[in-house]
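new request in #modeling-help
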Amino acid sequence: MEPRRKGLKPAALVIGGGIAGMQASLDIANAGFLVYLIEREPSIGGHMAQLDKTFPTLDCSSCILTPKMVDVARHPNIQLISYAEVVGVDGGIGHFKVRVKQKPRYVDVDRCTGCGLCVEACRLKGRITSEFDVGVSKRGAAYIPFPQAVPLKATIDPERCVFITRGVCGKIPACKEACAAEAIDFEQKEEMTELEVRAIIVATGFDLFDAHLKPEFGYGLYPNVITGLQFERLSSASGPTRGKITLNGQEPKKVVFIQCVGSRDKSVGVEYCSRVCCMYTAKQAHLVKEKIPDAEVTVLYIDVRAFGKGFEEFYDRVRGEGVVYRRGNPAEIYKKGERLIVMVEDTLLGESVQLEADLVVLATGITPRGDAENLADLLRLPSSSDGFFQEAHPKLRPVDTEREGVYLAGCCQGPKDIPDAVAQAKAAASSAIITLRNCMEVI
Amino acid sequence: MGPRIGVYVCHCGVNIAATVDVEAVTRFAQGLPSVAIARDYTYMCSDPGQALIKEDIEKFGLTKVVVASCSPMMHEPTFRGTIQEAGLNPYCLEMANIREQCSWVHGEKDKATRKAIQLVAAAVGKAFLLEPLEERRADVTPAALVIGGGIAGMQAALDIAKAGFLVYLVEKEPRLGGHLAQLGKTFPNLESVTPLLSKAIEEVEGHPNIDLLTSAEVVGVEGYIGNFKVKVTDRTTRRELKVGTIVVATGYDLFDAQLKPEYGYGVYEKVITGLEFERLVSSSGPGEGEILVKGKEPQDVVFIQCVGSRDKSVGQEYCSRICCMYTAKQAFLVKEMLPQARVTVLYMDVRAYGKGFEEFYDQVRGEGVIYRRGNPSEIYKKGERLVIRAEDTLLGEPIQLEADLVVLATGITPRRDSLKIANLLKLPRSADGFFMEAHPKLRPVDTVMNGVYLAGCCQGPKDIPDTVAQAKAAAASAMAPLCQGQVKVEAVTSIIDEELCSGCGICAEVCVYDALSLHERKGVMTINEVLCKGCGACAVACPSKAIKLSHFTPTQILAQVDALV
Amino acid sequence: MEGQDLAQAYRLFECIQCGRCTGGCPMSLKTRFNIRRLIYEALVYENIDLQSKEVLWDCSTCATCTLRCPKGLDPTDIVIGMRSILVEGGRIPPTIRDALKSLAIRGNPLTMAKEERADWAEGLGVKEISEGAKVLYFVGCSPSYDPRVQRVAKALVQAFKKADVDFGILGNEEVCCGSEARRVGETGLFEMLQELNLETLEPYPVELMVTTSPHCYNAFQNEYQGLDFKVQHYTQFVAGLIDEGKLPLSKEVKRIVTYQDPCFLGKQNKIFEEPRKILKSIPGLELRELDRSRERSLCCEGGGGRMWAEGTNPEERLAHTRVQEAMDLGAEVLATACPFCLLTLEDAAKTVAGEIEVMDIMELVVEAL
C-alpha cells in the first residue's frame, strides 16, 4: 500500500466497499477529488455481489455490479485499499488523520495475476466454509472469494492456512509451488499507514440476523431450513449449484418462505422492520416458480411491505404466478419423516395449519454490524436505539452526523434496499464534496 | 499495407477456459487473414495481460486489436485505454464476448468452442473494417437549474450552491416549501414542520449562490449536458438561463378522493382527506389546534388507508409509501388531543418500513388506536353519523362502523402537468406516470438524458428523509460535470450522407434526443453530434439509407454476419 | 370486565395479529381455542361474550404463545385474565370448582386430608424443617398424595440421603403453592395460599428450597413476593450434586431413554441442560432426543388446571402423540421431570400398542445408585 503524498489533491475517506461505499467513492472521485476506499474483505462488492437477481426488475445483480466494481478499480481518483481496516481517527473536519491497518494477504498483489493456480493447489481446498457462498460451498485457505473479485488477487486465510498456523505444509507449501508468478509471500507483515483526509464517509453495511437465535425454526438443525442469503447462492447462475435450486440433489416441490425472521420481533431484541425482506422474498418465490414450475410456493407474512417503485406491481405479478400468500407468522417447525412441518395460524381463516415443506427459506432481517460499536467509538459517532449509526436529523439531515465531516451511506444507518442505499450514498457524497470544496484553503 | 490484427483470447481463470478450448480458438485466429498474432492468456484484463497487448502493438505493428473475453460492458473501456496507451485509436478495438454469451451459458465443450471460434471470426471480420473515431469534449457552464421549490428542490439547490456553483431555483408558486408547508408534524418524531421548514427557506433565500425565481415556470429547454439554454417566464418577463445541468424536483399531486365515490368525499362534510386533516389539527387551522367537526369534538374517528393506492380500479397500482405512517401519526394526534375518542384504522398491510417506523406503529397502537384489517367498501349516512361498511378480514365478518369523522389516506400521484415537463426535457416516464430513472437499482437519480437528474417525488412516492437523500444524490450527480468543467461527447454517432438525404424529416421524428434538424439552406438533415447518443434509430428509419452509424456501419455489420454464417 | 378493560389491562392494543401465538399453541392442534382471535375480539367487539367461551378451559398455560410473541405481550396471562372473568361469573367446569374448593379448605386440589400430607414419608427418616435444615424440600401436592408420584418424592429422598444433604420438609404444614389456582383464574386463592406458605416459612432459616414440580418451582421463583432464599427445581439441585461428586452414579442402567421437556421447566424457565446432564451421567443409558425438544417441545396438556378438566376435545391427546414419537425413536423409557407430565404421559402410554415405560428422571437416578 502506498498512499499518495498529502497536499497532492484534497482527499476523502470511504469506509466500506459495498454498493454504498463504491457509489460514494465514484461520485466524489468524479467531482475531482481523491478517494481512499478502505475495504476489510479481500474484495469490494459487499452483500450485493452475493445476490442472484434484484427485485423488482430481476436484473442479474453481479451483471450490474461488476462493471461498477471495475469502474472503482480503474478510476484515477480512487485508491482502493482492500483487506485493510481503519484503526484510528484523529483531527476533525478538513484535517482528519486516519490510521489504516493493511492486513497481510501473504500474496504480493503486484505479482499476483489472479490466475487461481494457488487456489487449486491449496491442500485445504474444499474444506473451509465459504463466507461468500454462506456455507453453501467450501473454499481453501488460499482463495479468491468469487470469480469477479476486485482486486482479482488471491488471499491466504491466516487463521486456517496450515503453513501459517503450524509452520509446515508439506515440503514446500502447495500454493507456493503452484504459483508461476512467485507471488506467495509468507513473510508479509501487517502494515500501518496514516492518511490525511478532509471528510469521511461511513458505509460499513450490515450483518444478517442470526437465525440460530430463533430455535423454534430449527435452523442449523434441519438442512432444508435455509436463510434468504443462502437461497441467493443456491439460485445464482454463478453459484455452487449453477443456479439449480436443489438440496442433496433433490428439487424441492413444496417451498415455504417465512417473513420477519429477526425483524419486528422484540423477543429477539429486534423491534424494527428490515425493509428489504418482503421484496426479496417475493423475488425468491418468483424464482422458485420460474425454475420449478410445479412447485407449491407459500409465503407466510404479517404485513406485505411492498412500498417502493414497482414493488406493489411485482407483488401482484408474483401472486399472479401462483405463489400463495398466507397471513400468519409461524410458531414452529418440526420434522415429519423426510419433510418439514411448519406450524402456523392462517389468521385470515382463523385456523391453525400444519404446512408440509421440503424447503423452508427464512427471510432473515438486517442487523447492525457486530462490530459497529468499535467504529462508533473510533469516530465518536452516536448510535440510535436500534444500534445503527444515527443521522444528524431524522427528517432533514439523513446522511450527516453529529460529527462534522463524517457522513453516512447505506445500511450502516438503517436497513435499505439497493436504490435507496445508492441514493443515500450519493447524498453522502454530496455532503462530502461540499466539505472538500469549501476547505480547499484550510491546509 | 492492409490492417494488421492482433487477437487475444482470455481464459478468465476457469470461467472461459473450463468450457471453451481457448488454445483451439487461438490457433484458429492465427490462421485468419490479416491476423498478425494471436495469443491466449489467463486474465487479459490483468496488468500483465494488458502489457502483452501493448508489447505486441509495437513489436508487430498492429493496427487493430480483437479481445475475446467478457462482455464489452465489462472491459471495453479497459482495453480501449490499453491500445490508446500504445498509440492506437481507442476505436480500433473489437471485443468478442465468449464469456456471458458463450462459456457461461453452454455446457458442452465442443459446441462452446465452435461458437467461440465463430464469434472471434466475426469480430476479426469487423475489426478489419474499423475506422478511427474522434473523442471530443465540450465545456460546461458552471451553473445548475433546479425546477421545483419543495423540500427536494430546496435541498438540491442548497447542496449545489454550497459546493460553490450558481443555482437557478424555479418555483411556480409564489412561495417555497411545497407540500411540506401544509403539514403540521412529522412522523415518527412528531416534530413541528414550520420551524424546520422556515429555517430551510431562510437558508435558500439568503444563499448568495442561489438565484430564486418564484411564480415562474420553465417554458423551453434547448441544448445538451454542459450547455443548456432554459427559458423561464414569470408571466411578465422572460429570461434565458444558461446552465450546465438540470435537477427536476417537481413533486407530486394527491389522489383526488372524488374518484372513489363510494366514500362520499365531497358529499359528506365529515369525510376529509389526510391533507385536510393536517389543516384541521394545525394550530393555525380552523379549530385553532382543536379537532372540531361542525363545532363538535368527534367521538369516533375512522382512518381509511390505501385511498388511491394499490387500487387498479382507479388506475393506481402502486403503493404510495407514506400513507401508512402519516395515518399512524394522525391517529396518534387524535388520541393525544381527544383521549376519549375511539380511533380505528382500517388497513390491508401496515407498511411501517423506515427507521423508527415500526417502533412508532407500536407506540400508536399502545396508545389505544385500534387497527382492523380490511379495506372498506362504502360509506353512508345514518342520522348525523357516518357508517363505514367493511369486512374485518381477521374476524372474517362484515362490519359496520359508526364515525363522526372519516379521514381518507389519499395516495400520491404524478403531477397532472408532468407530461409538459417530460416533453420539455424529453424525459421518459415509467408505467406509473412518474419520471423514470436511468436504472431502477444503480442509477436512481440519473435519467437517460445526460445532464438531467431527478429529486424527490417526481420520480415516485417518498417520505421526507428519502426525498432529502434523493435530492442530495441528484445534487451530487449534477455537480460532477460542473466540477469537471468539461464533458465527454459520445464518439459513436450517426452520419448523414448529404448526397442521399431528401430532408424528409422522418429521422427527426424517431430521434428521442432531438439531435436531428433540417438544414434550412441545404434542405438536408444535420446531426448535432453532442446530442446524438449513437442509438441508431434514425439509421433504421431513413427511407433513403442516407444515415449510417459510425462504428456500426452496414459494411462492418455485414462483415460480421458473413463470418458467422 | 369488558373487552376494552381487558385491552387496557393486558396492552392488547399492541397486538399485530401475526398469529404466532395461535400457530404455536398446542391446543390449536386439536381444538378451536384461538387466543389470537380472542385478543382481537376483545379489541374490536363492543362486548366480548366470554361466558360462552368454553374453549378458554382448553389452555394448559404452557406459555408457548408468550415465548413466541414478537411484541412482548403475554397471551398466557391474557387467558388467565379471561378465566378470572369466567370464575367471577361462576362459569367454571365443576371438576375445577371442586379442585378449587379442596384447595381452599384442605390446601390441596386432590380432596385429600390435610393431616395426611406427609404420610408418604413415613419410615423414610425424613426430618421436618422445624428440626432445622438448610435445604427445604418442597414436595408439592401430587408427590404428596398421588401414589404414582409419591415414588418420585421417595426417589428424591433416597438420593438426598445418599448425597448427605441436610434437608427437611414442611410436613403437614405444607400447602399447595397455588400455581394452578392462579392459572385457572382464581387469583384470590393464589394470594391466600401464597400468604399461608410465606407465614409457615417465616420462622425457618432456610437457605435453599428444592421442588419436585416445575410448576411449584415456577410459582416460587417467578410469582411469589418476598422469599428470601434461593429456589431450585430438583434437576438443577441434583445436577449440582452430581457435578460436585456427591452423588456417584455407579450402576449401569442399560436403557434407551428419551426426554420430555416439561413446559414449566423448559420453555418457561429455560432449564434445558440440567435434566439432560443428569441422564447423561447415568452409566449405560443412551439418551435419544425427540425432534420436538427444548424450545420446541410439545406440551403434555397437564398444566393450567387441565389435570381436572378435559377440555373440548378429550378424544385426541397430545400426550398420546408424544408417547408415539418416543416409541418411534426406539426409546424404552420416556423420561420427564414433572409430576403432571408423568401422569398424563403414563396414562397415554397405557393406550398405545407396544412397550414403553414413562418415568421421572429421579427414578432412573435411583436405579443407578
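bot summary: DSSP finds 15 helices and 28 strands in chain B.
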